# Entry
Amino acid sequence: RERLYVGNLHPSVDEYTLLQLFIKYGKVAKLDFLFHKSGPLKGKPRGYAFIEYSNANDAERALVSAHDKLLRGRKLVITHAHQAPLDHAGFGSRPRRVVNDAGKPTTLSLLKSASSGRAEATQAKIAKMEAKLRQMEQVSA
# Structure
């Protein structure tokens, strides 16, 4: 009864945002923020998480208060973890948790990809400059 499912999360919601929202209702013992492990969405949020409170009263207060609350333009779906919705589509007949807009990039992934792109561009510039210096050395020799 202390563990809650939090669904319909916007892709830009991160662990910090969830903790700030749910710490208001009591002591959070554990947060499981789930990401895709493989495939084209690898590393992207799955669109849901599990929050565990230290006691059932805090969990119940969070469930009642946060269910249908808007977070980044989406109504949160809060239930007890054992009542979490299942998605039967996908590979085989193994049920999966519902995934919502997980393919959209998060702010963190955009920052990471932008910085890695810059690093590659910088490396390319350095390589060109080194090649130009070697060429100048050969011409002067």
